[in-house]
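Hi R.,

Here's the chain you asked about this morning:
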Amino acid sequence: MAKIAIIKSTFNEEIVDKMIVEIEKLGFEFDIIIVPGAYEIPIALAEKADSYDYMACVGCLIKGETKHFDVIADSIAKQILEISIDKKTPIGFGVITALNRAQAEKRTHLGKQAILAAKLTWEELYGKNN
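And here is the predicted structure, written out as tokens:
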């Protein structure tokens, strides 16, 4: 059985919790590693990737009136991809980037899509079935 982890940001936690509920519907067993915000997701992934077969990160960024949203969204997307490649661990990107709360609420399925993408990649690359 695959060892799976979800890195969960607690910022905008109400939305992120809905993402976790969607993932739980898949019936997988997984560990949850909690970080305070999306910016901290890459360090948790870098630290834990060697311990898991595949992972996903879930979080929610909602654009405000400053460039903060753009800086965080761009930097974590690049870092998550780099970690996945460097560690050779499939990592699904389940961080919602929305212009408002209503858009974010409509995208809570992205966590489930992220873990499924990581699973399928792991199966394809490493010939595993779970």
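One quick note: The chain has five helices and four strands.

Cheers,
M.
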